[in-house]
Structure to design on (937 residues):
């Protein structure tokens, strides 16, 4: 429902500038993920949008209105925290109703909203329990439920999955994705350091680095056309291979990037690179071969289906030309 | 634990010594309080006679019961009042960043270490101006000097430990600082409040200098002053039996409280790192 | 549906407070009652007490406005006698005052050292695992819980020269051959006060040190044991440095408390010159002799000394903090 605009938004803590003039638009109903390594400013940026942190300079607009100085509760936002942040002394019902109670919503209205949110999240049988009687996954659902009942224009998630174990993380990720489909007009902003979460959830991803936007785009755009070495290396698992020196010179660039799945095993006649397998990882559906070709790091090659090499084998390799990423000395892609 | 038999014996002897030294004086006071007449003046390690005369003596004095009631009233009101002011103040000190916070905290710590004598004459004047000399309110007012900084300091320590995200969730929910304190933090702080209150209560219950200075009539005294001023017909004739009985009466409630809240008290003392 | 406040482009009529400003404003409001109270009961009386020390106020003139400003005369005054002789008077040349100063310092240094020593011993014992540890910890809390007045009277009775159980015990084992007037004799009065104070406050010290001890990770001891390091060496090389910050805080708190001691001495050895401290002397001056001027001068000097000590503590506290994180 809300169209969010960030105009040269900055935040400093004392002399330390953590957000350095960010310009960004988040469209109405969009799922935007902020991703980046720790210390890149992604959480701070989310907190600036939420209003929990004060903007140092620049403008933050919701639907064209400046909200820089608006307190969080007046912005029409809801937030899901990393540690759930449930009120320990209140039941699930009271946790979800607290905000409405403060806004003096009528009892009937409150009850309807809490119950429908609880039903949506399948926690309606837990309404009378205290947070300490719930499992981690249930707590996170309550936290999401508390956000839903606020009927927000903007939904903010601050690393909501990092306290869950691996299996639960996948399941909850799915639920958040479903939530996004159900609430089509709610803008969602999600912070994570995990690029898999970013790729799977986002309509668009904003990669942050040292308080600046590195690239904004759909997951596919970032994957296929990273506009910097940093993004290329950050998005995708396992990482994109980077080759330098003579390997790069052969292709007229400073750094040559090629994703593991874009390298074919071929015959000696067709070979661009040749090397020995020094390590192999079998993940069942995928195989990764680590091949020593004389570069600074071994080349990782991804193979689906059956394994075409084992440790010690000499292999001939050929990259798929249209998937080569050529970067110049400034770490930017070359035309 | 591998200790030698000899080491073990030595260790347990040490333990027994510690326990004996800790409790013997009070044990001896109890024995004495049950003795009367000549038995009183014969030192002994085990009870040899039993009489309730001293207790009858003390409890039949209306002034002692009055003193006891005064002490309860003054300590309770002082602590309640201090906690009331301290909850909001400690929230401000623990959770909000503002200019001069560090200095303010240091000042509060400083005030809690005030030598009471340094304010005695000024306080005496103030109490007379307010017309509350020789009234319980004089003591409530003066005890605030040490209970208020103490409770603020300890509660600030406890308040700091509450998770920041819970407060932020409440802010997003639309809670003002006042709502955060009353609806979110207070229910979580009850154990800390009980501990802090108890420590402050003991401090107020035991206070002597102000109570001695700001009361004059027998009916307005607190228990410590009453016990200190218990004397016989002549200065040679100190009523030791009655004194010990009175001492036991005022100490037993404290000891029971302390033993019940043992763990909490230790936590409170170390949290504040403040005097007991 | 939540609604936004109507934004006013250009000049806002009423400035909206943002979250941080709202919180700071609330913080000031929350602090106000406490600050007013502290100003009333601490700052103002302190200011008045210091003011009295520059006047000749007495119990009679305190409220009728007859007292005169005398400058520093209560502290130090130069008097020229008719025969031309110069005489100095005032607290700073008063032998009683200096006696009280030395008593206070002597008492503080000895009692705090003994309490630190015994506190450390008790804490080490309580840090061991043994049957009945909870009971022992409960037992040592008892001296701490007993009101000072009660402990003064209890020990006064035990140390009584004719009927006291201490004399009885010591004579029984042949340590002394005739009863000692512990509290009355000037040779033993300070000792008596020290015994009671150490008895009463060692538990507090022990608990603070114990808290420090319990923060030392167990594996540190196990590693030392595996390396075959002698326990005594472990104590001096591992334990002591690790609890130093906790010990320092405890010692300073106790020292501040000892410097202002009043009730125990006032009750246990009321008339003794051997134990009179700054607080007791100042109290006597004010309450018994009604000399508010000179008594306040004394209390002001004590306040100055303790303030210096607090400043020292704050400074040391910082040093400790950085030292502890290393």
């Amino acid at each position: 429902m809300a169209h969010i605009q960030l105009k040269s938004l900055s935040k400093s803590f004392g002399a330390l500038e953590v957000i350095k003039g960010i310009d960004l638009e988040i469209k109405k109903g969009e799922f935007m993920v902020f991703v980046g390594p720790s210390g890149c400013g992604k959480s701070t940026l989310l907190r600036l949008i939420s209003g929990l942190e004060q903007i140092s300079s620049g403008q933050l607009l919701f639907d064209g209105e400046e909200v820089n100085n608006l307190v969080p509760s007046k912005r029409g936002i809801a937030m899901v925290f990393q540690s759930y942040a449930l009120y320990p002394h209140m039941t699930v019902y009271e946790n979800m109703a607290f905000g409405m109670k403060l806004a003096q919503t009528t009892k009937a209205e409150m009850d309807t909203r809490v119950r429908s949110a609880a039903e949506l999240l399948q926690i309606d049988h837990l309404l009378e329990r205290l947070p300490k009687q719930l499992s981690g996954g249930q707590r996170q659902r309550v936290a999401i439920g508390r956000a839903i009942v606020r009927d927000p224009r903007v939904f903010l998630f601050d690393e909501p999955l990092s306290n869950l174990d691996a299996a639960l993380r996948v399941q909850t990720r799915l639920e958040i994705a479903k939530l996004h489909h159900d609430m089509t007009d709610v803008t969602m902003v999600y912070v994570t350091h995990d690029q898999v979460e970013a790729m799977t959830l986002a309509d668009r991803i904003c990669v942050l680095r040292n308080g600046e936007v590195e690239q904004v785009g759909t997951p596919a755009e970032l994957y296929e056309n990273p506009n910097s070495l940093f993004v290329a290396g950050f998005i995708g698992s396992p990482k994109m291979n980077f080759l330098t020196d003579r390997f790069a010179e052969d292709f007229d660039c400073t750094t040559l990037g090629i994703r593991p799945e874009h390298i074919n095993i071929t015959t000696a006649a067709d070979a661009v690179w040749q090397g020995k397998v020094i390590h192999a990882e079998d993940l069942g559906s995928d195989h990764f071969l680590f091949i020593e070709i004389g570069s600074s790091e071994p080349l990782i090659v991804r193979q689906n289906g059956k394994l075409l090499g084992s440790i010690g084998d000499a292999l001939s390799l050929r990259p798929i030309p249209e998937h080569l990423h050529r970067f110049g000395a400034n770490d930017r892609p070359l035309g | 634990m591998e200790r030698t038999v000899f080491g073990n014996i030595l260790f347990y002897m040490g333990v027994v010594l510690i326990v004996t030294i800790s409790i013997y004086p009070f044990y001896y006071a109890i024995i004495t309080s049950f003795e009367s007449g000549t038995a009183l003046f014969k030192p002994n390690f085990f009870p040899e006679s039993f009489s309730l005369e001293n207790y009858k003596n003390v409890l039949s004095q209306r002034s002692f019961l009055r003193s006891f009631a005064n002490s309860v009233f003054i300590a309770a009101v002082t602590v309640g009042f201090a906690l009331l002011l301290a909850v909001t103040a400690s929230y401000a000190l623990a959770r909000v960043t503002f200019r001069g916070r560090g200095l303010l905290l240091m000042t509060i710590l400083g005030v809690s270490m005030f030598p009471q004598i340094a304010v005695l004459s000024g306080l005496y004047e103030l109490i007379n101006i307010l017309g509350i000399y020789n009234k319980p309110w004089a003591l409530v007012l003066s005890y605030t000097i040490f209970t208020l900084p103490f409770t603020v300091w300890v509660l600030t320590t406890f308040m700091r430990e509450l998770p920041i995200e819970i407060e932020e969730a409440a802010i997003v929910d639309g809670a003002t600082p006042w709502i955060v304190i009353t609806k979110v933090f207070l229910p979580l702080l009850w154990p800390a409040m009980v501990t802090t209150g108890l420590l402050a209560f003991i401090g107020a219950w035991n206070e002597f200098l102000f109570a001695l200075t700001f009361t004059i009539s027998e009916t307005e005294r607190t228990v410590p002053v009453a016990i200190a001023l218990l004397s016989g017909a002549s200065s040679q004739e100190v009523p030791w039996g009655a004194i010990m009985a009175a001492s036991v009466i005022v100490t037993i409630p404290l000891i029971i409280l302390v033993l019940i809240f043992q763990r909490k008290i230790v936590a409170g003392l170390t949290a504040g790192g403040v005097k007991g | 549906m939540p609604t936004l406040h109507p934004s006013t482009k250009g000049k806002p009529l009423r400035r909206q407070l943002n979250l941080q400003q709202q919180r700071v404003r609330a913080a000031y409001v929350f602090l106000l009652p406490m600050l007013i109270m502290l100003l009333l009961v601490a700052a103002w009386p302190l200011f008045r007490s210091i003011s009295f020390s520059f006047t000749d106020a007495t119990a009679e003139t305190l409220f009728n406005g007859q007292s005169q400003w005398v400058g520093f005369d209560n502290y130090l005054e130069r008097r020229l006698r008719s025969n031309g002789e110069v005489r100095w008077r005032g607290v700073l040349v008063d032998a009683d005052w200096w006696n009280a100063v030395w008593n206070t310092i002597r008492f503080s240094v000895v009692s705090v050292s003994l309490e630190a020593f015994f506190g450390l011993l008790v804490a080490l014992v309580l840090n061991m695992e043994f049957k009945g540890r909870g009971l022992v910890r409960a037992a040592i809390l008892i001296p701490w819980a007993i009101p000072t007045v009660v402990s003064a009277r209890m020990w006064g009775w035990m140390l009584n020269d004719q009927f006291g159980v201490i004399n009885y015990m010591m004579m029984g084992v042949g340590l002394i051959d005739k009863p000692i007037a512990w509290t009355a004799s000037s040779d033993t009065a300070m000792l008596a006060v020290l015994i009671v104070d150490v008895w009463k406050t060692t538990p507090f010290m022990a608990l603070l040190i114990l808290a420090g001890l319990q923060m030392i990770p167990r594996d540190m001891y196990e590693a030392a044991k595996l390396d075959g390091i002698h326990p005594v060496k472990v104590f001096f090389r591992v334990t002591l440095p690790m609890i130093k910050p906790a010990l320092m805080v405890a010692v300073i708190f106790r020292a501040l408390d000892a410097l202002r001691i009043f009730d125990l001495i006032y009750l246990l050895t009321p008339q003794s010159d051997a134990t009179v401290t700054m607080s007791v002397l100042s109290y006597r001056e004010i309450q018994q002799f009604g000399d508010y001027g000179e008594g306040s001068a004394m209390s002001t000097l004590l306040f100055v000394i303790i303030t210096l000590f607090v400043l020292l503590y704050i400074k040391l506290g910082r040093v400790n903090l950085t030292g502890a994180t290393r």
Q: What stands out?
A: The interface with chain A takes residues 163, 165-166, 168-175, 179, 183-184, 187-188 of chain B (CB under 8 Å).
